[in-house]
């Protein structure tokens, strides 16, 4: 493989999928990409605004905005009506389910369920699964996960007498203790809930191995792919999980939740729904009226990703060793995610080097440059002498968006001993970010660090 090609970091995480070789986008290609995102035109104090808040939600391409407006202007109707706008809505709904199945690697659009957000979908599924459990059954959760894949399962402890067992982390690099997972599995294990990537520190979990371990114990798996979805190709078929959930607003789409559930499992479990609703998939699990405008926008987001994968497949390498794969929508989407991954790997390496130059900055997670394939480009840190909120505020006043706190990675922040001091500052990079923006971040952090008093929190600028 040529030196400028990178194998997507998802290969080891998702299991037996073909390697996806790609090269990073060139500077000219990145500019072409950025032209698709109107938000990137925003300025503050005469300088371009820097969006490093992607872990909390990415910006959307112009086609997504236009599709949402077009739907509301011309086709806004409830579904299954005997008139033109309802028929148009039905056709759009069928197509966005099919496109989402291609994005997730699902063979059946009926296995794709849309909802308000990942948290709401997970509570719905956990409540439904809970009705099948009895006292003494066990669910395994981890201390690396977002609380949306922890709290719904903890609730079953009180409601059903289910025992929740915990998997700890290696604190030195914020990776899961797989030996601890092996100890947690047993004959009463019914489900393992795990994240594909940490929303706080970017760790990519070996999800295929974890799913295999859970299945060997006879347990179902529920994979939170919210933080992985903007960065790596997803393949639920290769992963073998019964459930995988993500959030389109984290991968350049509108605010929605997206759930994959294996057909036989979705059909077997009773959903909470109104009585007249059909039992056919996916409607059995899609309660109430779906937000047509948001789904029309998501379909346009998939179109943008298809453009990316089809346009830069030559520049961005070959997909699966054969560029002909981009003749299919699934191929173009996987190609897009491979190019995105290769581009972000370059950003991650640049950020790791640049952030290490900031005095008093302490980065958590995987920081070994040789292990960048084990993480996505999300970085969390503390800065001596300043609380995370103070750092985020000072960055915000310089036109740089970041997050602070625990970002609902509640157990991880507690395990790291940072809950009482305000958590960490978090920045994240996606394919529309640039090395120049990272340099601007580091310049700002160096200025902020220079004004801090070691051991003391300072007042805001």
Describe it.
- By secondary structure, this protein is of the alpha/beta class.
- It folds into two domains: 6-61 and 342-449, Aspartate Aminotransferase, domain 1 (Alpha-Beta Complex), CATH 3.90.1150.10; 65-300, Type I PLP-dependent aspartate aminotransferase-like (Major domain) (Aspartate Aminotransferase, domain 2), CATH 3.40.640.10.
- It has 15 helices and 19 strands.
- It has helices at residues 10-14, 27-34, 62-75, 84-104, 118-130, 151-160, 178-184, 207-216, 236-239, 263-268, 292-311, 329-355, 388-397, 410-415, 435-450, and strands at residues 6-7, 21-22, 43-44, 47-48, 50-51, 112-115, 138-142, 163-167, 169-170, 175-176, 189-195, 220-224, 243-246, 257-261, 361-364, 378-383, 400-401, 403-405, 424-428.
- The strands form six sheets. A seven-stranded mixed β-sheet has the order 6-14-13-12-11-7-8, sandwiched between helices. A four-stranded antiparallel β-sheet has the order 15-16-19-18, covered by helices on one side. It has a two-stranded antiparallel sheet with strand order 1-2.
- Strand 9 and strand 10 (175-176) form a beta hairpin.
- Helix 5 (118-130) runs parallel beside helix 6.
- The radius of gyration is 22 Å and the shape is globular.
- Mean pLDDT is 92; it is low at 1-12, 316-322 and 455-461.
């Amino acid at each position: 493989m040529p030196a400028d090609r990178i194998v997507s970091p998802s290969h080891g995480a998702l299991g037996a999928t073909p390697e996806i070789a790609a090269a990073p986008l060139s500077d000219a290609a990145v500019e072409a990409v950025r032209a698709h995102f109107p938000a990137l035109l925003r300025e503050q104090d005469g300088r371009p605004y820097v969006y490093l808040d992607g872990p909390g939600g990415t910006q959307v391409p112009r086609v997504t905005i236009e599709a949402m407006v077009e739907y509301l202007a011309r086709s806004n109707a409830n579904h299954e009506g005997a008139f033109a706008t309802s028929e148009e809505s039905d056709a759009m709904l069928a197509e966005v389910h099919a496109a989402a199945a291609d994005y997730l690697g699902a063979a059946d659009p009926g296995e794709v369920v849309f909802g308000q957000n990942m948290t709401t979908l997970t509570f719905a599924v956990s409540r439904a699964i809970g009705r099948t459990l009895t006292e003494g059954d066990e669910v395994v959760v981890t201390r690396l996960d977002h609380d949306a894949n922890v709290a719904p399962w903890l609730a079953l402890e009180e409601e059903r007498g289910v025992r929740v067992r915990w998997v700890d982390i290696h604190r030195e690099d914020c990776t899961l203790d797989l030996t601890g997972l092996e100890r947690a599995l047993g004959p009463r294990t019914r489900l393992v809930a795990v994240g594909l990537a940490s929303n706080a520190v970017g760790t990519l979990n070996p999800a295929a191995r974890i799913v295999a371990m859970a299945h060997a114990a006879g347990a179902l798996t529920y994979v939170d792919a919210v933080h992985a979805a903007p960065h790596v190709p997803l393949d639920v078929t290769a992963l073998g999980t019964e459930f995988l959930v993500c959030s389109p607003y984290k991968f350049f789409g509108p605010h929605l939740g997206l759930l994959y559930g294996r057909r036989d499992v979705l059909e077997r479990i009773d959903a909470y729904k109104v009585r007249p609703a059909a039992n056919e998939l996916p409607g059995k699990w899609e309660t109430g009226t779906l937000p047509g405008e948001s789904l029309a926008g998501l379909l346009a987001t998939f179109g943008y990703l298809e453009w990316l994968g089809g346009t830069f497949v030559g520049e961005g390498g070959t997909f699966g060793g054969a560029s002909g794969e981009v003749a299919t929508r699934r191929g173009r989407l996987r190609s897009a995610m491979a190019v995105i991954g290769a581009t972000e790997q370059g950003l991650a390496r640049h950020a790791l080097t640049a952030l290490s130059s900031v005095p008093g900055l302490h980065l958590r997670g995987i920081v070994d440059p040789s292990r960048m394939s084990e993480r996505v480009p999300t970085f969390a840190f503390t800065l001596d002498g300043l609380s995370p909120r103070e750092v985020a505020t000072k960055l915000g006043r310089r036109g740089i968006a970041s997050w602070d706190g625990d970002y609902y990675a509640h157990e991880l922040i507690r395990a790291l001993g940072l809950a009482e001091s305000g958590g960490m500052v978090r920045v994240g990079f996606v394919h529309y970010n640039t090395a120049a923006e990272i340099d601007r971040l580091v310049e700002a952090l160096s200025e902020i660090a220079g004004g801090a008093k070691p051991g003391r929190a300072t007042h805001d600028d």
